[in-house]
Task: inverse folding
């Protein structure tokens, strides 16, 4: 069973996946994302929130999740990194979104893998591991 320090599986996967796979839900995670999440939580040493009672689609999303289902119903393909368990959206206690992005930038040399960060989000930060590795961080607009 895959374990991620400081997080329960339900904090990283949607409720549909957790209902089916429970504690074994993390077996689907991209190993690069697992490594980054563990590094980040240890390095920042503050509470990090992904999924909670208010947000349930910030980690691994399935075809039953509203964000994915809405695109499917419109006939659109949804290839989000979230549907491949290669992305998370998160908050850090007592830090704003831009402050978190700046912290990551300052510590990028210590990161175990290359990442992408979505620019301009407010109230949360998106990172994914869909970076080909030419630079430690690639910033992108949605």
Result:
């Amino acid at each position: 069973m895959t374990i991620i320090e400081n997080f329960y599986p339900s904090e990283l996967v949607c409720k549909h996946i957790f209902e089916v796979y429970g504690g074994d839900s993390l077996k689907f995670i991209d190993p690069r994302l697992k490594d980054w999440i563990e590094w980040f939580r240890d390095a920042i040493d503050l509470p990090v929130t992904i999924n909670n009672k208010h947000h349930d689609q910030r980690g691994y999303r399935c075809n039953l999740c509203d964000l994915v289902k809405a695109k499917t119903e419109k006939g659109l393909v949804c290839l989000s990194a979230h549907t491949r368990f290669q992305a998370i959206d998160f908050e850090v206690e007592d830090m704003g979104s831009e402050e978190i992005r700046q912290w990551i930038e300052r510590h990028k040399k210590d990161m175990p893998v290359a990442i992408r960060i979505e620019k301009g989000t407010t109230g949360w930060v998106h990172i994914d591991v869909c970076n080909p590795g030419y630079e430690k961080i690639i910033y992108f607009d949605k």
About this structure: The first strand starts at residue 48 and ends at 49. The two ends are 34 Å apart (CA to CA). The beta strands are 48-49, 87-92, 115-118, 125-128, 137-140. The mean pLDDT is 95.
